[in-house]
């Protein structure tokens, strides 16, 4: 009788820590990695030949907006096909809980398609995710913008009052006690841009008590980025929380090259407090269509428009020419809408990705009609394009920035390493062929070279297709802290 449920045989293990590849069999029993043995030594009911392939921990996408995609699209093909086994949701200040208003509204519609997927508390939301049986795991941040909307109504163009801050603080405290892993803010966005530094600090105080993380889509990623970094670091210090700066970039042509300022600033600050950041491997970003962002982008592609049909995937310049008006006027006519902005420098992106504080996050937006290709391509692109082809960093280090380092920064206990006793979140890929195929023109396309993806011991993706495994779960801060203690 075979001792194990699954054995991945004869692969080269990239264990997630950055350690050099080594040949081994990896055995799975139940939801755990049960043994790692010399090549050919282990037997299982299901044996997967990984000769010539790399066996890595499942990738952790630390920057997503997949909160309700886990419920609506539980096979999570856009992520499982990349080797991703955990998505960190609720970034940029928007989360699906806690929210009590009857309407979805513009802000929440960025991550929510159905009102019933929005919940008044985190416990109810996590239960919805578990009930959907997603193929991969979710970990969830609470959005400061969502807290503001549910507490302040539509009166958002001001600092919150003392009693509103108290309410938001209590909602965050409750959510963390229920298993949310931290708080995100998006001070760049209209719902939160009038919040003061003090407001964010006072709302975020429970992070210190519960050891939750603070992620920040900063107030400014362009001309005033240094000031915004100072504000973010100050919030982390005053709250007593570890910081992750979201999608680090120097935005706009006039800011190209400024990584020579921001990266040393990260290095300095990292000596004094726990700071890290995530990066996506593209020179274009994507968010809502905003006329104040048009000037600093070299090119703007429309991803969706609620007002005018048939605009997805089109260049705003062509739309404006057709309408016989300025780009700003065209943008106004398309609202509400989403866009992709080409606004970064390739050298900056590479410098950011290879910094010691960098991990990989996609920032893909799951419900876009014409999404940014990062939604389907981020992780294979880092492995194939940046590590193998451009040799930006060795494969082992690329894997580390997608696995163990990410798990450490977000405190995802027993994940992110190929290690006996850890959860069986695994990705088997071909290092010679792995590559993204999603492009700005054709963004919905699974990557090549991802062989098998296992989440909690179940096969989520295999040979270019959904694997049928649906063992993902809503990860819970309290449970993970207990598990971390047992390990220590
Ligand atoms: Zn963001």
Structural overview:
By secondary structure, the protein is α/β, with parallel strands linked by helices. It folds into 3 domains: 4-56 and 430-487, Urease, subunit C, domain 1 (Roll); 58-291 and 339-422, Metal-dependent hydrolases (TIM Barrel); 292-338, Dna Ligase, domain 1 (2-Layer Sandwich). Helix content is 31%, strand content 22%. The chain has 17 helices and 20 strands. The chain has helices spanning 69-72, 77-80, 105-108, 122-131, 144-152, 162-177, 197-204, 206-210, 225-239, 259-270, 316-323, 327-334, 346-353, 374-389, 395-400, 404-409, 477-487, and strands at residues 4-13, 22-29, 32-37, 44-49, 54-57, 59-61, 84-89, 137-143, 182-186, 213-217, 243-245, 275-279, 284-288, 299-305, 337-342, 358-360, 426-429, 450-455, 458-462, 465-466. Strands 1, 2, 3, 4, 5, 17, 18, 19 and 20 form a 9-stranded mixed beta sheet that branches. Helix 9 links the parallel strand 10 (213-217) and strand 11. Helix 5 packs across helix 6, helix 9 (225-239) runs parallel beside helix 10 (259-270) and helix 11 (316-323) packs across helix 12 (327-334). The two termini are 34 Å apart. The structure holds zinc ion (ZN). The site of zinc ion has 5 residues, from loops. Zinc ion is lined by residues 92, 186, 217, 246-247.
């Amino acid at each position: 009788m075979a001792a194990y449920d699954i054995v991945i045989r004869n692969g080269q293990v990239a264990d997630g820590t950055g350690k050099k590849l080594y040949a081994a069999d990896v055995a799975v029993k139940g939801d755990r990695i049960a043994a790692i043995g010399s090549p050919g030594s282990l037997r299982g009911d299901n044996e997967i030949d990984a000769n010539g392939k790399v066996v890595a921990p499942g990738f952790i996408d630390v920057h997503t907006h997949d909160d309700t995609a886990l419920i609506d699209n539980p096979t999570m093909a856009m992520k499982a096909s990349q080797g991703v086994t955990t998505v960190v949701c609720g970034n940029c200040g928007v989360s699906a809980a806690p929210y009590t208003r009857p309407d979805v509204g513009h802000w929440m519609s960025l991550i929510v398609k159905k009102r019933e997927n929005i919940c008044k508390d985190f416990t109810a939301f996590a239960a919805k995710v578990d009930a959907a049986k997603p193929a991969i795991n979710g970990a969830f941040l609470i959005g400061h913008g969502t807290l503001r909307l549910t507490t302040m109504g539509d009166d958002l163009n001001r600092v919150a009052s003392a009693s509103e801050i108290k309410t938001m603080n209590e909602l965050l405290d409750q959510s963390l006690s229920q298993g949310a892993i931290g708080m995100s803010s998006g001070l760049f966005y209209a719902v939160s841009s009038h919040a003061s530094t003090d407001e964010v600090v006072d709302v975020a105080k429970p992070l210190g008590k519960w050891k939750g993380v603070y992620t920040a889509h900063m107030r400014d990623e362009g001309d005033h980025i240094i000031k915004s970094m100072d504000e973010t670091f100050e919030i982390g210090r005053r709250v007593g929380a570890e910081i992750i700066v979201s999608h680090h970039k120097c935005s706009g042509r006039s800011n190209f090259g400024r990584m020579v300022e921001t990266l040393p600033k990260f290095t300095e600050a990292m000596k004094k407090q726990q700071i890290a950041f995530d990066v996506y491997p593209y020179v274009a970003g994507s968010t809502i269509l905003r006329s104040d962002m048009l000037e600093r982008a070299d090119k703007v592609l429309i991803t969706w428009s609620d007002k005018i049909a048939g605009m997805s995937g089109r260049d705003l310049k062509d739309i404006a020419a057709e309408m016989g008006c300025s780009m700003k006027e065209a943008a106004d006519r398309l609202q509400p809408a989403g866009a992709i902005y080409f606004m970064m420098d390739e050298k900056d992106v590479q410098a950011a990705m290879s910094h010691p504080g960098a991990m990989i996050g996609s920032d893909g937006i799951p419900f876009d009609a014409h999404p940014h290709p990062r939604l389907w391509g981020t992780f294979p692109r880092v492995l194939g394009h940046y590590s193998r082809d451009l040799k930006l960093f060795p494969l082992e280090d690329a894997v580390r920035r997608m696995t163990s380092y990410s798990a450490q920064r977000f405190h995802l206990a027993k994940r992110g390493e190929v290690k006996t006793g850890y959860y069986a979140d695994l990705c088997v890929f071909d290092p010679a062929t792995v590559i993204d195929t999603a492009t700005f023109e054709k963004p919905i396309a699974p990557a090549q070279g991802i062989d098998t993806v296992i989440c909690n011991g179940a096969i989520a993706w295999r040979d270019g297709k959904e694997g049928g495994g649906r063992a993902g779960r809503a990860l819970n801060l309290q449970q993970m802290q207990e598990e971390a203690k047992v390990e220590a």
